[in-house]
Amino acid sequence: MNFEAIEIRKLTFKKNVLGGFRQLDVNDFLRNVADDYETYDERIRRLVEEKDRLDAELAKHQSGQHTAVTRLEQEKNELLKKIQQLEQEKKQLELQKEPLERFQELQIEYEDLNKMKRIAQKTLQAAEKAANRLLEEAEKKKATLLSEAEQQKTSLLNAAEEERLQYLFDAKLEISSLQKEQDQQAHELLAEKANLEQKRQELLQLRTQICEEVQTFAGMMAATRQEISQEYVNSIETLTKQNEAVRQKTQTSSTPQEPPTLVLTQEKEVM
């Protein structure tokens, strides 16, 4: 693989997870650069040998062969140009030694990262041991707390059972007292009911008596009303007769004003 200068300048390497270049890519690059160096060295050596050979042949044939000299001169110039080009490429390859130095620096950084990784692993192991120790202590505390909680639970259950029994006993006493009070109140209510029943009977008798008295009073009122009506009818008839007599007298009398006055006065008195 032959590299051009622009290709070498644009060449990049992929980085590992830890941040450095991948060693495989760098090794491939260095191997290719070394191969190119060997190729260029071999070409330069051959060109130099060819130049020496041509110079010798040119010296031999310089006197008699102008055309050959001209051709050899041209070949010499071409070879010189090629040599110059190869020297320039060689200089460029020498400039490419910098990635190798950078690779060595990265190698050192990689070793430092490995050391840091080992330190981190040791720290992680120590942290895991500490975490396991803390977990064991937490388990012990958990068991202790569970035991204490179980004891408190048993104590609270016993206290609650005692309170429940005491409450049931007090409730039974209160129920017994209430039962006695209810029996006494029921007895009093029965007595009061009998008393009320007696009063109701008395009221019924009184009502019957009042109804009889009302009927008697109603009969008396009817008789009185009938008597008053009869008296009123009789008085009307009397007044009618008096008015008739007065009218007759008025027709025969010369002073008709006085008798009507007397009749009206009598009517007012009757009313």
Automatic annotation (TrEMBL):
Q: Tell me the compartments it is located in.
A: Cytoplasm
Q: Supply one GO CC term from the record.
A: cytoplasm
Pfam short name (any one): DivIVA
UniProt-listed InterPro entries: DivIVA_domain (IPR019933), DivIVA_fam (IPR007793)
Please name the GO terms of the biological process aspect recorded for this protein, alphabetically.
Answer: cell division
Q: Where is this region: Disordered?
A: 243-271
Task: Give the primary localization class.
Answer: cytoplasm
- Keyword terms: Cell cycle, Cell division, Coiled coil, Cytoplasm
Highest rank taxon of the organism? Bacteria
Which Gene3D superfamilies does the UniProt entry name for this protein? Answer: 6.10.250.660
Q: What is this protein called?
A: DivIVA domain-containing protein
